[in-house]
Write a structure and sequence with these properties.
With 310 residues, this protein is an alpha+beta fold. Helix content is 36%, strand content 26%.
Length: 310
Amino acid sequence: MAITSRSSKSALLVWISSAALFFIIYRSAITASPSPPHSGLSVKERRVQMYDKMARDLDEKGAGFLEGGETSQSLSLSDIFELKNGAVVPILKVANPPVRANVLYLHPQFAKPISEVVKEIFLPYFDGAIWFQNESMYHFSMFHASHHLTPIIATDTEIQDEANAVKRVAESICPLEIKLDRVVLTSTGVLLGCWQVISGTDPVEIRGKLREALPNAPKKQLYDLVLLHTSFARILGHPKFPEEERKEPFDQLQFFHELVARVNSKLHDFQAIVSELWYVEEYDVLALALNGRMKTRRFRLGCYNGQTNH
């Protein structure tokens, strides 16, 4: 394929400022630095190290998402979300060029009970100040054929060739049986589910296969190879307490830890099956996260080519 990378200012200026700012703070807690040295460590142990670091992020950096309009974080968030009739809604912006993402999909059969627990625990305190991931769009980001930092322009034919290559990858990998290792809240207000693999093709191998299948993709990808995470919600403001629950003095970090602990007590070791790999063209900025416009090609994981579950 003759795909070329272009850094045209005319394309980027349309949306890069808001997209980059939001995406940077969305990812900062999980990709701020390379994963710890992993000499002799298994993939599972490397994930545990990464998840331990993510769990410390709130204590080490504080709840930056509560700083309101005084920080660049909140300014970028206000450019992405607004309040309408008491509900948080996204402000969708055209992605020019569209992002082309490959994600593992979590079926609502598994996403719905997770979403219900998260809403049950967080909504009473953050009504009008929280964005919940659409339970029909729970996903695990794997690999980008083009992203906002390195847009790779492609023709319709080249995009179809990419999709065909991803389909072949899907046919060669096995469905994943996974369990929820823990839920963490980052300093940027993102509530993340961090998963381990019980059986099936590991994300490290999946990303390697996608790299081979999509040679023109950005060399610098957005996530660590071992990471297997799902966004459950994004907190956008201060908690609200019923009068009978107000305490003085208020320890906000302890409060957040207690909420996350309640989620973990209900969801720790929750198991799910992942059986689809999607090739997604996101026509709006962060369409997968914000219910924007997109085109999805859905491929079932096949376990062909003689491969068996690990």
